[in-house]
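EI: anyone free to look at a 238-residue chain?
SC: sure, send it
EI:
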Amino acid sequence: MNVDLKAANAARWAKASLTRNFAPIAAKLFAAKSRYRAVEAKTGVPWFVIAVIHQRESSQSWAGSLAQGDPWNRVSTHVPAGRGPFVSWEAAAIDALVNCAPHASRNRDWTIGGTLALLEGYNGLGYAKRGVPSPYLWAGTNQYRSGKYVADGKYNANYVDTQPGCAGLILALMALDSGIRFGAPAVVAPSAAPAPVVAAPKPAIKPAAPAAPSITNPSKGSIGAFIAGLFASIFRRK
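SC: here you go
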């Protein structure tokens, strides 16, 4: 993701405040946290990021796909087109985050700059190319006044976006959930090499101890050995 875009959005965030009341919308998003967390577990995308995309793409309709708001139980016709049908809203959401640009599940930078750049990329980078705040992020905050692409490639500088922007929605959600945090860029550590397997030493095999002397096994030089030899000589003569 563009380093300049991350820095620009982080700077806007530092000065951002709400100019509209997003509290009722944020409350509905927060109430569905468990559903968003289920998708987070499959994709690695923070639940609140999923929530604000859901609001922006389909006004939190559970019948609309996270990808573009089309019904998830049919093949999508808007970009990204040709997705689906899916068996559930969750399945469609996972597909949108894993398989569709900007492939949010691959993001490893969930700092505020990285998060907002990812969200802006979700809608397109036309505003960044113009050097203006994206209403997809900033509508409803003091960082946005006007300007919107009202059709593909058609920008209207005077049009005011009335939808809630993602950054403003996150601000409103943070007022409800103190657990929302922005982390440092994730670093994937290399897998540790397994410790070499060292075979246990085999126990030394001790030679068997000689049998104790007995009548059938007299010790050499003993009287028992003499008598045994005498009997053996007599029986050999026969």
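EI: The longest helix spans residues 223-237.
SC: 👍
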